[in-house]
């Protein structure tokens, strides 16, 4: 009640304009509640006075009720008109502000005198390059938000968009990696640019397409249908901006155009016909020629290279460049010559085109408290200073000068490998860019002036100093990987060593390598193949890849830690590779190596070339995918000969196939099945007479957040089901390995819930359960071997078939059992399992005869025979 009264009072004051916020943050609340929560929690944690948080979008109440109740600064709104602040920040659901981000941005605006501040996001790469004029005044160098240690999933120190409210209409369209002004109205955009007396950084202007784009992870944007209209609108804006006296605004527009929307179209050059390419190339040439040399040099190097290639009509080189850079996430090696930094990129270009300016190579600084006082001096505090020039490796300790109020401080080199690891760079080593500095404890909030010279590259920045809020250095924990094995830089070096060893060391005919999924457990078909191979060839040395050396592996095997130097060495030398997922992108099968691909489920969903075409992949990208998938296989395991054709077609595979059934299913029909069932039920605490139900949904492509993660769907309310079923049931919740775990408090009078997502062996759960609730998961093919009831929760079957993923063949015959649309339908079926089993007995038999006839308990024997032939 107090919070409610306080919220009403403050809102009344706002209406009377007595309290006017400085910053309004608009959060789109139309998405999944978890994403909205992530955004709102990060905004509410900002230590900024004069902050209002406006949630916008229809049907938002349930998603934001907690925030409305807990924080009077949060209120409903209908978009830009609802914002009262001098500055407006727009967030997409799921975007999270780093600690102190708004504070740092306001500091940069104040220091530069700008009325417009543009920053950048860090969704997909661990760095967040910031605007040039504000980088030394808190934007890049804020100790919490912009230390260069930004998480790949968080918004960097400079938010996506901060704009004076009076200047432009605020629309948020999509994620980007550069500064963005987003609007659907070119006239409004021009007015906004002309109204800005100064601009921090180079704006990227995005002209929005009213038609929504497919936002699913992995779906490739095809902008070519928009090309003609987009070029026409771009020319219109250029015409308005090209008035005498407006050259600086026109140049800012052109730089942003090349770095933003033009870059999007240049990436799609492969999709264009000759006429489209000519139109794009001609207009890019006009824009590039219209920019002064210095202006073109301010465009970030990758879009600069693409624009130059387009302007030179080097289409083939542009397409090859885009393909080569597809998975590099903005990372590239650099070379330093005469104090200048040059990007090393896979294309023949004039050297000046590859020169990086200070905007792309700023000085990154951060501070951490090491201890309260230095030995023998109680008046100082020891801090760790990190200071490196972004994208410039540090081969030896750089020259550094640190000043506080004009006085030079004592600086001692203190190399720290964590600096490189936390920076997240694949190509630059910053371990030597770390120093110990003694600062007076009497110093209040102040700024350190930091000057660094590394390989002749000189940069200066200011680093905020506030001992009362300085984070302490984290405790160094024991880690399974060594310092020279941890982090992206170390892994990239190990991959280079692997490539060299792959071509120089002989294969070991006595060495066999096994991996299952990403190494968190030894399971699936590789386990069954391992047992049979050990039985026939006990002379072989078998090695299992594991994420943790404490992970259980089969008897007789040796563990090798995923990502370790020993792991790369095994992959370079082993003769046999057995895996149930695709190998890493850098892996290449050697001549003489045998790679057995078992996959981890019955092929029924759209896959390979069909799936990639559905996602909009171009021919070159499909070829790239085939190179890392079927081109690496030497033996493919399929469950039946009828499935062979799908792999031949969808992976363009012409190698060996053994249609042997799935080794993973041998145990389900083996002599130990009853013993395993009793043992697992005992270990899970499933009492006699209890009905155990396995709930195992698959992941949805449209909920994916990366290629190995996805949010779980919400079709089945497990808590409501537990209450309805009562204490006679136990629900085994098996989330997909892409899903986060389910948590729910235990309550009496209802079914017990056990989250078994992390249980290492799914066959244990199949055998221990009495029924299964499934959807489109291939687990239904394995579960059918038990003959026990299956209930299919498939309310979205039409959507899934037509849009979400789709199937290789009709889904209906592969789902023998009752179909349900909601939790109530599932509960009704589970309450009468004997009737379900009786009604579908003939369907189960027909299903197994069609799909599982080779799953007779001897599949592993047939696979090993083929492997050793």
Main attributes of the structure:
single chain, 869 residues, alpha/beta, seven-stranded parallel β-sheet, six-stranded parallel β-sheet, 33% helix, 19% strand, disordered N terminus
* Most strands sheet: 7 strands, parallel
Please provide the count of β strands.
35
Q: What is the CA-based Rg, rounded? A: 30 Å
Structural class: alpha/beta
Strand order of the largest sheet: 23-22-21-24-25-26-27
Low-confidence stretches: 1-7, 9-18, 111-190, 192-215, 704-710, 737-745
Number of helices: 29
- The pLDDT mean sits at 81
Distance between the termini: 77 Å
Q: How would you sum up this structure, described in words?
A:
This protein is α/β, with parallel strands linked by helices and 869 residues long. Helix content is 33%, strand content 19%. The chain has 29 helices and 35 strands. The strands form 9 sheets. The chain has a 7-stranded parallel β-sheet, sandwiched between helices. The protein has a 6-stranded parallel β-sheet with strand order 32-31-28-33-34-35, sandwiched between helices. Helix 20 links the parallel strand 26 (635-638) and strand 27 (656-659). Helix 6 packs parallel to helix 7 and helix 12 (301-311) packs antiparallel against helix 13 (315-324). The chain starts with a helix and ends with a helix. Mean pLDDT is 81; it is low at 1-7, 9-18, 111-190, 192-215, 704-710 and 737-745.
